[in-house]
Amino acid sequence: MEAGVLIIGAGGLGCPAALALAAGGVRRIGIVDDDRVDASNLHRQVLFADADIGALKTVAFARALSRRFPALDVVTHAVRFDVGNARELVQAYDVVIDGSDNFATKFLANDAAVLARRPLVHAAAVGTGGQLLTVPAGGRPCYRCLFEEPPPPGVGPSCAEAGVLGPVPGVIGALAGVEASLLLRGAAPAFVGRLLQYDSGGMTLRAVAFNPNPRCAVCAAGARIHALAADDYPAADCAVLDRAGEPGLRLGEPTAGGTGPSQGPVV
Question: ω before 141 within 30° of 0 (cis)?
Answer without folding.
Answer: yes
